[in-house]
Design goal:
The protein is α/β, with parallel strands linked by helices and 184 residues long. It is built from six helices and seven strands. It is globular.
């Protein structure tokens, strides 16, 4: 039922989806650009409902202290992460451990790490994918053309500098909800 609701909403809003996750893919890191607005979250929730997969995302653990918000975050795939003190340094290791503990984990992340304009991506998503030995799925939410585009499935090589240059080059030029904040 929810799938059909989101399909209708996508159609009414003029959105479409170009591509999908590989069949049978149980573990990966999905990186989505550009992250310029909270509206990106709702586009992502719609895409995963339409395509029938469950994606998780990382959230500051402090937000899980408030009942209605904590319930919503859990229901939509939020994973609490400590982002202060000594735990902050172990986020990548903690997430890699989750991949090793679970039979299935699809984690969606914004490589910019913020909704502000950035010149380069953060590297956490890359280090997680490398440590967990899972592919990186590159996706763009292009608000200008109203198309969600699956760009590429990428296996990290371990040469982070070269891989990051390549990933950034593939993900440039898509227009976010707030165009001036888009990754170019």
């Amino acid at each position: 039922m929810i799938k059909y609701f989101f399909k209708l909403m996508f159609k009414v809003a003029g959105w479409s989806i170009d591509g999908q996750l590989s069949k049978g893919l149980k573990k990966c890191v999905i990186i989505v650009v550009p992250h310029t607005s909270f509206a990106d979250f709702f586009v992502g929730v719609a895409v995963r409902a339409i395509q029938g997969f469950r994606a998780s995302y990382l959230v500051k653990e402090e937000l899980f202290k408030f009942f209605p918000l904590a319930w919503f975050l859990k229901k939509t795939g939020g994973i609490p992460i400590a982002r202060s003190g000594e735990a902050k340094n172990n986020v990548v290791d903690s997430v890699v451990n989750l991949y090793h503990q679970r039979e299935s984990l699809i984690l969606a992340m914004a490589p910019e790490g913020t909704r502000r304009k950035v010149e380069h991506f953060k590297t956490g998503f890359y280090r997680i994918a490398l440590g967990a030995k899972v592919p990186i799925i590159m996706v763009a939410f292009d608000f200008e053309s109203r198309v969600v585009r699956y760009l590429e499935e990428f296996e990290p090589t371990g040469d982070m500098k070269s891989d990051m240059i390549y990933i950034e080059s593939r993900m440039k030029g898509y227009i976010g909800k707030k165009p001036e904040l888009s990754f170019n």
